[in-house]
Design a protein that fits this description.
Arc Repressor Mutant, subunit A, elongated, 3 strands, three-stranded antiparallel sheet, mainly alpha, about 200 residues
Length: about 200
């Protein structure tokens, strides 16, 4: 095994440990359902509000899915819906903003715990080195990061789920779809990836 292979193996192992630690120490996943909706409004909303069309684009949900999750979040007091005229807009309430604040605080605390063995300078070096690796893969090797968001559906070879099926149901033709459970990864431009989330409960519950 070359030194490069050893380094990448160590990097992968560390990343896996960090992912597991964040799962155990961090907050409940906000990658689907109401949590995803709140995060999108907070990140991309203008004056705390965002319209349904943009939510559909950013989350990759159908219009009825956006409405269903938004109405559930409104029942819980997390968002307010403006359905007047031809516009359907959703905005965070004070309760929804507080839920996000607490969520991010727990996430940051977990991240601090994972990197507790590094000095601030080492953390900066880690970020810089990771960015260099990413730039090499993207710019020099022509790797498309969006590929990591795509997985094969388990219904058979060659059958694709809606950008990555991991549950019992998928959005493929002929299969039921009870609730949005899409996982997304935001880039700086708001582009996302989608895929069904794990778990027995629906993401909008």
């Amino acid at each position: 095994m070359t030194e490069s292979s050893k380094a990448l193996k160590s990097l992968k192992t560390a990343a896996n440990y960090a992912k597991l630690a964040m799962h155990d120490l961090g907050p409940r996943s906000y990658k689907k359902g109401q949590g995803a909706l709140l995060k999108v409004i907070e990140k991309f909303g203008e004056d705390g509000s965002i319209d349904k069309k943009r939510l559909e684009r950013l989350l990759g949900w159908r219009g009825d899915e956006v409405r269903r999750v938004a109405e559930k979040a409104e029942e819980n007091g997390y968002v307010a819906i403006d359905d007047g005229g031809f516009e359907f807009a959703v905005s965070l309430t004070a309760k929804g903003a507080e839920v996000l604040r607490k969520r991010f605080a727990v996430e940051n605390h977990a991240a601090d715990a994972v990197l507790a063995g590094l000095t601030p300078d080492e953390v900066d070096q880690l970020v810089a080195l990771a960015d260099k690796i990413s730039a090499t893969c993207k710019d020099d090797l022509g790797i498309d990061y969006a590929r990591i968001e795509k997985r094969s559906c388990r219904h058979g070879r060659g059958h694709k789920a809606d950008a990555g099926h991991r549950g019992r149901r998928c959005a493929c033709k002929g299969h039921g779809h009870d609730a949005p459970q899409y996982v997304f990864v935001f880039g700086d431009d708001g582009r996302h990836g989608r895929g069904h989330g794990k778990g027995k409960k629906h993401g909008c519950c």
